Automatic annotation (TrEMBL), chain A:
Annotated family: Belongs to the bacterial solute-binding protein 1 family.
Organism ancestry: Bacteria, Bacillati, Actinomycetota, Actinomycetes, Kitasatosporales
Protein species of origin: Mangrovactinospora gilvigrisea
Pfam families: SBP_bac_1 (PF01547)
Keywords: Signal, Transport
Subcellular location: Cell envelope
Name of the molecule in the record: Sugar ABC transporter substrate-binding protein
GO cellular component: cell envelope
From TrEMBL, chain B:
Protein name, entry field: Sugar ABC transporter permease
Organism field: Mangrovactinospora gilvigrisea
InterPro entries attached to this UniProt entry: ABC_transporter_permease (IPR051393), MetI-like (IPR000515), MetI-like_sf (IPR035906)
Source domain of life: Bacteria
Membrane topology according to the record: Multi-pass membrane protein
First-listed, main subcellular location of the protein, grouped into a coarse class: membrane
GO cellular component terms, A-Z: plasma membrane
CDD domains found in the cross-reference section: TM_PBP2 (cd06261)
Stretches assigned to the ABC transmembrane type-1 domain: 79-299
SUPFAM superfamilies for the chain: MetI-like
Length: 424, 310, 278
């Protein structure tokens, strides 16, 4: 297990017995004829668009075959890592900003620049926050094929009932808090807003809107002992305390999206990725809408997006890079936009996505791009994300004081970051 | 195993080996396929992993000798103690499922029961129900505001908890689901065990005028005790390794009850796979293995008191 | 005599009552799975959930078949499940018989080592097992999925218990007749542990049918993939179309239930056989 590509003794003996069965796996496309690229991805919802784009690439590049390998998200990273250890990684794969640094820092990926595209790989056409997220040590390893931002979704029916003005781009935190109070109707089981302990689509946004941070820009320090960070968390927990948000227990039991879909929540912060699901709910199709999030000390939204990255072990690096760029490029963007599942990463291709649900102000998600912040991450993000899951819910549920919980969290996270710096 | 085939050398060898020796050779021969398969695919990987636990191991391989550092770390890691306790508590609770399964299996095995096959299929259905569906419905049943459990409790004047997010109740709620989920498996095993009990023994007992309860304790229980022992040992081994169920029930959102429900294998999975520290994960796994070995050894010691092999 | 008939009937009514209530508790999630498979996405995420969909969405079942290459997945899954089940029945019954009825030096130690293998979380062994399969050159093959699961410490232990429960007179008699252990295993012992074999077959088939991580790690080509990873891929990172997922799971479950129904006849026949010889 430990050393990559070292043959085990028993394994070698077994190999001798089964020598005829030794088959070249994956199509490395020997010689000049056809070449196969293996492309690994995880989202069933995006699969049709990906097939369509891959087919176009095939027709533009005669003799090239793209083999799409759909892996469930729950097992995706285990599968990729196991394959990388065995030297059987795909040529191109989806990467998330959360895991990108792990693969880059351990030298598993190839930079996208080649002799052919040396001048530019067109990074200017993408949301800057995500271009930055897929860069490592001055090299660009991926470009976002899509991106997401977070919006303030609301239920107009509940606003009308409470006589509250609909939210818009002028809203600040205090507007949000006041409206949440007015919209809350205990008897009807309706809450104004979900002050949820959900990172990307709630408290991270509040932290950056308050000029706080989760992790320092040099990724060496936790932001949980920063007063602005603690203030943002306190703002959210206060909304639970004054009853305008469901309690943590209620959110654990029912989920904020379900409460919103069931008319029990007037406002909620949810990602652009919820658009297709909300569109399948008649109530929201009729009464739902979305606008930009309320402004704190400043405006901010967390953004994330998937990159197409090339693995070091590919036999066809030039072709693989070309394919990775194509799958993040303009034409793929248009195909993705028509499918309506995600916002394409390539600037200007989002029009068809906006048109999928004309009843809502989906433009709000795109308006947020200029002040978007990449999802906080480091090489081993999951280690300190676990610390968050251990300490913060105690504060959210009222079992622990906010100051104590964030202090403990900051200590644990700093320890993890020190360990990360040692091992990387 | 060629001792039987060679007519001249065979007899000589047979004599030299004696009855004992031949029986031993047969023994080795019959376990050989399993021993070889388990050796290559389980024993060898376990040995490799044991070696890894004394090293640090990068996310993509690359060993560095650490000696006992990972094991020292285990005793400093607060989460380890807590998770072990959670696993132990879960295991104790899940043991309740064994007698329940045995009683149900006994009913399902009644000779004169009509619709026996139909019932058996119904009792098999939980085993084939998709885990996601199981988690979904139980999350709804246990929902603090809209759940059936609290609705029924409300009828008798009890205000039910937010079962899955209250650190005092979450593990109990999960154990209840665990018992439910294991009933189907255990019933299959018990029915098979009961089927091996010859009918004549029941008939003889009934002719002696013994009631169903007496028959169960005097005839049935001793005769299925090897199966009961098997189920008990496997239940403890599986319960100490509980992970998927807790993950499905708890991972949908941030939850204050997570520290109170996270099992040791959950922690192992988190450290080894999510946080990419596989050598530390391996150390956790071997700590767990030692604990399970002790529990199982104790069960094997105690079996002499209650398990009847013929 | 009539009072005995009465008690029997009363006992039987009592049994039905207990079994019926138990069955209800056991079956509800399965029924829930059926109901959910007919809902819209919106209905499936409603709180509190509706008990019945306004308009049953049979199209969810169509969608499963367009989303997944069900035909090839079925075939691969069945091949792997049958291969593993047959192999385990053979190997585990041989080993279980040896551990229960033959004496040989080191028997208890070897058995203890087998048992110890059950005590390691299976996730831990994925990478070394992958490397063994890789060195045989069986990555991305159906036999590569099948191989490690053909051997089982669980099955060996289970059948050992069944063999151990049989009366010692059986093999003594056969041995006096001059039969060797292999022959005794085949013609005397195996018929008597049929219920145990049936139970192991059901459990192995089921386990193999649901096996998720291993096939995923070994297989890369979509045409060699099995059902369980296919179903898992219907669960996305953020949102899941639960109705389609449940519909897929239901379709995938049908063969397992069929196998159970067939094998449970074996359970019943098992009684008669054991009864005659007991």
């Amino acid at each position: 297990m430990p050393i990559p590509r070292r043959r085990t003794v028993l394994g070698a003996a077994a190999a001798a017995l089964a020598a005829p069965a030794l088959a070249a796996c994956g199509g490395e496309g020997a010689g000049g004829g056809s070449k196969t690229l293996r492309y690994t991805l995880w989202d069933q919802n995006q699969y049709p668009a990906m097939i369509k784009a891959a087919k176009e690439f095939e027709s533009q590049n005669p003799g090239v075959h793209i083999s799409l390998e759909l892996v469930p998200y729950g097992q995706y990273w285990t599968k990729l890592q196991t394959a990388a250890i065995g030297g059987t990684a795909p040529d191109v794969a989806w990467m998330s900003t959360l895991t990108f640094q792990l693969f880059a820092a351990y030298d598993q990926l190839l930079p996208l620049s080649t002799a052919a595209n040396a001048a530019s790989i067109g990074a200017a056409n993408y949301p800057p926050a995500l271009v930055e997220a897929y860069a490592w040590k001055g090299q660009q390893y991926g470009l976002p094929k899509d991106y997401d931002t977070i919006g303030l979704w609301y239920n107009k029916q509940l606003f009308d009932k409470a006589g509250v003005r609909y939210p818009d781009a002028t809203w600040t935190w205090s507007d949000l808090r006041d409206a949440a109070r007015k919209l809350t109707d205990k008897k009807a089981g309706v809450h104004g807003f979900a002050a949820e302990m959900s990172n990307q689509s709630c408290y991270y946004d509040f932290i950056y809107q308050n000029d706080g941070f989760v992790i320092s820009p040099d990724r060496k320090r936790s932001g949980y002992d920063n007063p602005r960070t603690v203030e943002a968390i306190t703002f959210l927990i206060d909304m639970i305390k004054d009853g305008s948000s469901p309690s943590m227990a209620e959110i654990v039991d029912s989920g904020s999206a379900s409460l919103f879909q069931s008319g029990k929540l007037a406002m909620t912060y949810q990602g652009s990725w919820m658009t297709p699901q909300f569109a399948a709910v008649p109530l929201l199709k009729k009464y739902g809408d979305v606008t930009v999030m309320a402004k704190g000390r400043k405006r901010a939204t967390i953004t994330n997006g998937l990159g197409n990255c090339v693995f070091r072990t590919t036999r066809n690096p030039e072709l693989a890079k070309k394919f990775a760029l194509f799958m993040s490029g303009k034409r793929t963007g248009e195909i993705q936009a028509e499918a309506g599942v995600v916002i394409p990463g390539y600037r200007g291709t989002e029009k068809a996505w906006l048109a999928t649900n004309k009843q809502w102000q989906l433009q709000s998600f795109i308006d947020e791009v200029p002040y978007a912040v990449p999802f906080p991450h480091s090489i081993n993000s999951t280690a300190w994300q676990d610390d968050e899951q251990t300490y913060l819910p105690q504060a959210w549920a009222g079992y622990d004081d906010i100051g104590d919980a964030t202090r403990k969290l900051a200590d644990a996270m700093n320890l993890d970051l020190r360990r990360e710096a040692r091992t990387a | 195993m060629s001792t039987e085939t060679n007519p001249t050398g065979g007899t000589k060898r047979r004599r030299r080996l004696g009855i004992r020796g031949r029986e031993a050779l047969w023994g080795y021969g019959l376990i050989a396929p399993t021993a070889l398969g388990l050796g290559v695919f389980y024993v060898w990987p376990v040995i490799q992993t044991l070696y890894v636990s004394f090293n640090s191991w990068g996310p993509f391989g690359g060993l560095k000798w650490l000696g006992l550092d990972n094991y020292r770390e285990l005793f400093k890691d607060e989460a380890v103690g807590r998770s072990l306790l959670n696993s132990a508590l879960y295991t104790l609770m899940v043991l309740i499922g064994i007698p329940v399964a045995l009683v149900l299996a006994n009913l399902l095995n009644r000779r004169l029961l009509r619709g026996k096959s139909f019932y058996r299929v119904l009792y098999f259905l939980p085993v084939v129900t998709m885990p996601t569906a199981v988690a979904m419905i139980w999350r709804w049943l246990l929902n603090g505001d809209f759940g059936l459990v609290n609705y029924l409790l409300g009828k008798v004047g009890i205000h039910g908890a937010n079962w899955l997010s209250d650190p005092n109740t979450a593990l109990i709620a999960i154990a209840a689901v665990g018992i439910w989920a294991s009933l189907g498996y255990n019933i299959i095993l018990f029915v098979a065990g009961l089927q091996s009990v010859p009918d004549q023994l029941y008939e003889a007992a009934e002719l002696d005028g013994a009631g169903p309860v007496t028959v169960f304790f005097k005839v049935t229980l001793p005769l299925v005790s090897p199966t009961v022992f098997f189920v008990a040992v496997i239940t403890v081994i599986n319960a100490l390794q509980v992970f998927d169920l807790i993950y499905l029930m708890m991972s949908t959102s941030a939850n204050p009850a997570l520290p109170a429900t996270r099992s040791i294998v959950y922690l192992f999975y988190q450290r080894a796979f999510m946080e990419n520290d596989r050598s530390y994960g391996a150390a956790i796994a071997f700590l767990l293995m030692i604990i399970i070995v002790i529990c199982t050894a104790v069960q094997f010691r105690l079996q002499k008191r209650w398990v009847h092999y013929e | 005599m009539s009072s005995r008939a009465m008690t029997t009937r009363r006992a039987s009514i009592g049994s039905h009552a207990v079994l019926a209530v138990g069955a209800l508790v056991m079956v509800v999630p399965f029924i829930w799975q059926i109901i959910t498979s007919l809902k819209t996405i919106g209905e499936s995420t409603q709180v509190p959930p509706g008990l019945w969909p306004a308009h049953p969405q049979w199209s969810n079942f169509d969608q499963v078949f367009t989303d997944l290459p069900f035909g090839s997945m079925f075939l691969n899954t069945a091949l792997v499940a049958v291969g593993r089940t047959v192999a385990q029945l053979l190997f585990c019954s041989l080993a279980g018989y040896a551990f229960a009825r033959l004496r040989f030096p080191g028997r208890n130690i070897i058995f203890a080592v087998f048992l110890a293998l059950l005590m390691v979380p299976s996730y831990l062994l994925i990478i070394p097992q992958y490397q063994v399969i890789q060195s045989i050159g069986w990555l991305n093959t159906v036999q590569g999925i099948m191989l490690p699961g053909m051997f089982s410490a669980f099955g060996t232990f289970l059948l050992r218990q069944f063999f151990a429960g049989l009366p010692p007179s059986l093999d003594e008699a056969a041995r006096i007749d001059g039969a060797n252990p292999l022959r005794i295993w085949w013609s005397v012992m195996l018929p008597l542990v049929r219920p145990g074999l049936a139970a192991l077959a059901v459990l192995t088939f089921l386990w193999s049918w649901n096996d998720l991580l291993w096939p995923l790690v070994v297989i890369t080509s979509p045409d060699k993939m099995t059902l369980s990873p296919g179903l898992a891929s219907l669960q996305s990172q953020f949102t899941t179309n639960y109705p389609v997922l449940m519909a897929g799971a239901l379709v995938a479950t049908v063969p397992v239930i069929a196998v159970f129904i067939v094998l449970q006849r074996q359970f019943i026949e098992g009684v008669a056989a054991a009864g005659n010889k007991g």
